[in-house]
Amino acid sequence: GGVVQELAGSDTVRAMALAVRVEKERFKFNCAHFVAFKGFRERLHGHNYQVGVTVYGELATDGYVLDFGVVKEHAVKLCKAWNEHFICPMNSDVLDIKRGDGRIEITCEDGAYFVFPEVDCLCLPIVHSTAEELAIVFTDLLIKSLTLEYLEERKITEFKVSVGETINQQAIYRLKLKDYPEIVHAARSKATPCLDCATDGQGGADAVSLK
Hints:
6 helices; 211 residues; alpha+beta; 12 strands
């Protein structure tokens, strides 16, 4: 017992690079989407997205890098906010998106036309509704939810967030906290202020700010 206590309390161990990984059944959101870029558009379809979160940092005096429960609380909150919506890429360079009168109208290059109730849309500052871009935004919102001050206090150094469309098919975004938020904003260089859907799961525009 004494050896373990001495080891756990040493500066050497606390400075070691450690990580905690959380990937729970509740880390999921079901959404409809289609990817569109110049000359191409998928058919409207959906996925049962699964999220995984890895946090890197130092071992604190309480024996944690970051409490699993803290990660779970904030990740589940975001997944619930995103669940059961149509993912609308507000910065698309090929979709003509109009927002007003409680609805979202989308006209595609190929002439396809969609109208969705605004409360059913997850309006995100992304160009494409790919798993890669979703992982970037999810990471941004997760850090904002946890707060940068708290993460720096815990000496968290890096995040790795995966968003999977199905088993063994996922995009992984890795971010060093020292580069935040500049690198996230660069990855979303065409971003404009937008709101995602309400955290009560009922939709609406009174939600998590992505400014």
